[in-house]
Design brief:
The protein is an all-alpha fold and 441 residues long. Helix content is 75%, strand content 0%.
């Protein structure tokens, strides 16, 4: 086993780098579509959705400060619930949550690469570029965990540049009449609630840093600090960019252009060549998100195998030389990502997921699963093991409310119950696997 590789800045960089990446760039149009072009309602949705990440991370940080075992949320579920729940969390993250996120975000890299080089941007080409990115970053992180961390830090710093430039430009040179606060008092329907689902995607990924808990220096202290600081910073940056871009080119342009609205804003702001540079920054930003997700999923099969919660655990639980994870487990994680990239291609090509993708429901179910841990923290607060009214009571209550709001915003998806059923089947399979494994001992 190698020594701990990651410090506080890398841990914060991982959270910020994963969460701030693709979501804010290619979900702004989805949010405005759901709010009928209302910037003010979009800001409200951002703040409501932020409850899930801010109070969720505050709550999970209490569990993170109690253990440094490999597995992150798997370890938290094992320590506070039981091995059945831990196995279910691990399988859900390994086979559904992480790989669907990786595929969708890598696809976004393909979208922006086509914009950068003026390519036709067919779905097949975008998926091909995204698949190549996944392959390269898997190899990159397997060859060197330290280099993966360095790239994460670099990508985090670079990705903030276009967000700041476009956000500030919108406030300075944008049209303030686009921001109509009266929208908040004249809402005609609750249709804007559907914007919570795409915002949840934009906020998602913060939990992934916990998978590296056993590789973080002074993890009990540094991981907790990172989980508290990063979400507040992320909300501030998101509001700056979302309002800025909407004021600068107008909400109608954002909705009409979709993912290409970033390119238009950059061209208007700094000209064609400057726009290319900003687009490069955006691509690096999204690459940072893919890299952080891959850093997380690489370790999941290994963490499960250490607990005998994975098929053929005896072969996967042995860490490869010079690594804090198993190479066999990494190859399994890669194979799962390839499988979901194929599914993602056919779902987009057929158009069955309008204004959505394969990751959206997985994110929602993931937040629902977090409620199990939030309730455990609440229970620890009641027994006095976690001190303080906010730490042990209000934080988990508000985190639970945030998860329920995301659930409410996602139920309107016509495929919600199909995906939820598939997720339930996967969770049940994990529990049955552990039952068979435990009774066989």
């Amino acid at each position: 086993m190698k020594k701990n590789e990651y410090g506080l800045f890398t841990t914060i960089g991982m959270i910020v780098g994963i969460v701030i990446g693709s979501g804010i760039f290619f979900r702004s149009d989805n949010i405005l579509i759901a709010t009928g072009g209302s910037i003010a309602l979009g800001v409200l949705v951002f703040c409501l959705s932020a409850i899930s990440i801010i109070f969720g991370s505050l709550t999970i940080s209490e569990l993170a400060s109690r253990t440094t075992k490999a597995g992150g949320i798997i370890a938290y579920a094992e320590d506070t619930c039981n091995k059945y729940v831990a196995c279910a969390f691990g399988w859900f993250h390994t086979f559904l949550y992480y790989p669907t996120l990786i595929c969708v975000v890598a696809w976004v890299v393909g979208i922006y690469m086509c914009l950068l080089f003026g390519l036709s941007g067919t779905l097949l080409l975008q998926i091909g570029i995204g698949s190549s990115v996944i392959c390269l970053l898997f190899v990159f992180n397997i060859l060197s965990a330290k280099l993966g961390g360095y790239f994460q830090n670099l990508a985090t710093v670079i990705k903030l540049i276009p967000l700041f430039i476009i956000g500030i430009a919108g406030f300075v040179a944008g049209d303030p009449t686009h921001l109509n606060v009266a929208d908040l008092t004249t809402m005609q329907s609750a249709g804007w609630i559907t914007a919570i689902a795409p915002v949840a995607f934009a906020f998602d990924g913060w939990i992934i840093a916990t998978t590296l808990g056993h590789e973080i220096k002074d993890a009990k202290k540094n991981l907790k600090i990172a989980l508290i600081f990063a979400p507040l910073f992320i909300l501030a940056i998101y509001l700056l960019y979302f309002v800025g871009i909407s004021l600068y080119i107008g909400p109608e342009a954002v909705m009409q252009l979709g993912d290409a609205h970033v390119d238009l804003a950059a061209q208007q702001l700094v000209g064609p060549w400057g726009a290319k540079i900003i687009l490069i920054f955006v691509i690096i930003s999204v690459l940072g998100t893919v890299n952080g997700l891959i850093m997380g999923i690489l370790r999941l099969p290994y963490s499960l195998a250490l607990r005998d919660m994975f098929p053929h655990s005896e072969k996967i639980k042995v860490a490869s030389k010079g690594l804090n994870f198993s190479l066999r487990g990494a190859l399994i994680a890669f194979s799962v990502c390839v499988f979901w990239m194929v599914i993602h291609y056919f779902s987009q090509a057929s158009g069955i997921l309008q204004n959505s993708d394969v990751s959206e429901i997985a994110i929602t179910i993931n937040y629902v699963l977090y409620i199990i841990l939030y309730l455990k923290v609440f229970k620890l607060g009641q027994t006095g093991e976690i001190k303080g009214f906010w730490r042990g009571k209000m934080n988990p209550i508000l985190a639970t409310c945030g998860s329920l709001m995301i659930l409410l915003g996602s139920i309107s998806n016509p495929y919600f119950f199909v995906y939820a059923g598939f997720s339930a089947l996967l969770l049940l399979s994990a529990m049955l696997f552990w039952h068979k494994k435990s009774t066989a001992k």
